[in-house]
Amino acid sequence: MNNIRLLIGDDVKLIREGLKIILERFGDIEVVGMAQVKEEALALCQSAAPQVVLMDIRRPGCDGVEAARRIHARHQDIQVLILTTFSDMDYIEGALRQGAAGYLYKDSAHNVIYEAIKAASRGSIVVPPAVARQLLSHVALQKFKGRNRSQDLTAREITFIRLGTQGLSNKEISRPLFWSEGSVKKPNQSNSFQVIAA
Asked: Taking the model in full, what pTM does it have?
């Protein structure tokens, strides 16, 4: 099996080099580039052809959300994983909206980051369970606020949100809803996500 081609983007050299050493020890990840600033990352996406970009969300001159947008716009086959110390919902939602493949904390265990990279390389969207619960609750609240008072969330929508926050697979979520796995993946034509234990 071919190695996963990874690009690491972080403004701190120690973090970039540390992640490279740690992740290449797993044996099936090849770090094909390391970028300090946005322009380097964009150039390396073109020249090094990574499958996954692991990028800090807050970077000098351009935050990770904007970088994710620009990478996704130019290279839709490259998956961008946001790595951060922050749990700001605006950043999380912004990153996912701009095509990011997921959101991880910098203090995540090494094997969690590794598994997230593998999942992203397969096309899954990855968020820690705590972030998934927060995100789904936030989305449900915004959806509810956007409706008339007479338009409550349907029982099926509530069940979907509840199941989605339990870390279940798409198949496990689909059964009680009598949905196909494809419907779970794209309930509103948005990307599915897979929760990786934090």
From this structure: 0.67
Q: Which CATH entry fits the domain spanning 4-124: 3.40.50.2300, 2.120.10.30, 3.10.580.10, 4.10.240.10?
A: 3.40.50.2300
How far is the CA of 50 from the CAs of 11, 41, 90, 138, in angstroms? 19, 10, 27, 32
DSSP at 20:
H
* Residue whose entry in the numeric block shows the structure tokens 């059964």: 175
- Read off the pLDDT of residues 51-105 as tens digits, 9 standing for 90 and up: 999 988 765 555 667 778 888 888 988 999 988 776 667 777 777 777 888 888 8
Domains of the chain by residue range? 4-124, 130-195
Alpha-helical segments (H) within the chain: 13-24, 38-47, 64-74, 89-97, 110-121, 129-145, 155-164, 170-177, 181-185
Q: Which amino acid is present at 103?
A: Y
Helix/strand/coil (H/E/C) assignment for every residue in 91-121: HHHHHHHCCCCEEEECCCCHHHHHHHHHHHH
